[in-house]
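Reopening this one. Same input as before:
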Amino acid sequence: MKLKPRIGTAGEMKFTVAQEHVIDFATGGMPAVLSTPRLVALIERTARESLYPFLKDNERTVGAEIEIRHLAPTPLGQAVTITTRVIGTETRTVDFQFEVRDAHEVIARGLHKRAVITVESFAKRVARKSAG
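Same output, byte for byte:
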């Protein structure tokens, strides 16, 4: 890393729940709501993008842990805001706290850890696994 992010460094993403974000079992009267797997992916993206200014050109971050409480449903068409905040840093990891809100309430909160990797060494590790 060029420098460590400071405690409190924040990331934010706003989106509207679209068809691509909802559960795939919205049938038989079950309403189309934001799915947990899609929510996790967007939380990770928000945290990842907040770290871009701190990384060297050959570095990226990958998700290492996530602890989420998905507290409330959010229907199709609702606006959602994800906020991530750095709560700790170590040599090669960054810890986040996150909160997700729709227009009515907090819909999720939890903790997320990202590991800092170099593209070259990560690609070599993947290649070794792919080779057999």
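So the earlier flakiness isn't reproducible anymore. For the record, The helical segments are 36-50, 119-131.
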